[in-house]
Amino acid sequence: MRILITGARGMLGHDLVRVLSPASTTGLSSKDLDVTDLQAVGRTFRRHAPQVVIHAAAYTDVDACESHAELAHRVNGLGTRNVAQIAEDIGAAVVYISTDYVFDGEKTEPYLESDPTHPINVYGESKLAGEGFVRDLCGRHYIIRTSWLFGRHGKNFVATILRLTGEQKTLRVVSDQVGSPTYSYHLAQKIAELVSSNRFGTYHVTNSSSCSWFEFALQIMKMRQICMSVVPITSAESGRPARRPRNSVLRNLALEEEGLQLLPHWQEGLAQYLAELS
Catalytic residue among 123, 142, 203, 273, which? Predict the structure, then answer.
C-alpha cells in the first residue's frame, strides 16, 4: 500500500514514518508541500500516486490561532479541503488527524464520536472545518480525534514540565481541565492498524484513562524522581489567550465497537516516552 504523509516532520508525522513501511511511505514536510496551494497538492499527489493520504499537517499553536485566525482556517480548513479534493480525484483514502478541541468541554462524561461538536476556540473551529471537508469531499476517510499529544519530536507538555523543573522553584499548573494524555507513538501504531483495516469512519483514539494537567505534571515528576513545589491553578489564572475545554476526555467507542484493542494507559505511554528520552 502506497502511503503519503503530510506534516511528516511534526510530532505525529515522525512517528508515522517510523511505524509505517519506509519502502511504501512518502513523508512530506511543510517545506515539501504547501497544502494551501491546490495546484501544488494536485501535482504532488499525482506524482506519488498514493493509495492513502495521512493528513497530519496543521497549524497547531492553539493560542497563536486566536490572533492568526485567517492563517489557522487557511491551513487547517482550506488546506484540508485541498487534500481531500485531490485525494478523491486520484482515488486515495484520507486519514485526517483532528482534535478534542472540536468539543466545548461542558459534557460531564467522556465524549463519544457521535456527540454534537461545539468548539470554543479558533483552533477547534478550524479543525472542525477540516473534518467537514473530509466528510463532504472524500468517500473513503478516517477522521481521528486525539488529545493532549506528547512525543519525541515537537513541543509538548511533558518536555515543558521537565524544562521548567530546571528553571523554576515552583510550578503553577492548571487543575480544572481534564483529558487523556496520548503518546504519539502509540497513536501512530493505531493509525497504521486502522489504515490496513479499511474500516472507515470517525474514531476517538487516545491513551486510556484520564487526569488533569496538574495530575499529569505530578506523575511526570514522580517518574523522574523530581521533588519540587507544584501549585494547582484555574484556567482563568493561567491567562492563556485561547479558551480550553474543561473536559477533553474522549471515549474510544468506535474502536471498541470494531473489536480493536484500545491504547494502553496514559501512564504507560508516559513511561515509554521518558525511557526513550533517557
Answer: 123
Q: Give me the amino acid identity at 263.
A: L
- 185 is an active site residue: no
Q: Which residue's C-alpha cell is 486502522?
A: 194
Please check the confidence at residue 249 and state whether its pLDDT lies above 90: yes
* Residue 128 to residue 116: CA distance in whole angstroms: 11
Q: What residues have CB less than 8 Å from 31, skipping those under 6 apart?
A: none
- Phi/psi-derived region of residue 86, left when phi > 0, alpha when psi is between -120 and 50, beta in every other case: alpha
Each residue of 120-154: b (16+ CB within 10 Å) or e? bbbbbbbbbbbbebbeebbeebbbbbbbbbbbbeb
Asked if residue 245 has pLDDT above 90, the reply is: yes
**How far apart, in whole angstroms, are the C-alpha atoms of residue 245 and residue 224?**
28
Residue 209 region, left (φ>0) first, then alpha (ψ -120 to 50), else beta?
A: left
Q: Is the dihedral of CA 136, 137, 142, 148 positive or negative?
A: negative
How many CB atoms are closer than 10 A to CB 262?
14
Average pLDDT, the chain: 97
Q: What phi and psi, each to the nearest 5 degrees, are found at residue 201? A: 145, -170
Q: In angstroms, what CA-CA distances link 257 with 107, 180, 209, 254?
A: 22, 20, 18, 5
- Does the global pTM surpass 0.90? yes
The reported pLDDT for the residue numbered 278 is 83
Q: Do the Cβ atoms of 158 and 151 come closer than 8 Å?
A: no
Which residues share a beta bridge with 3? 25, 52
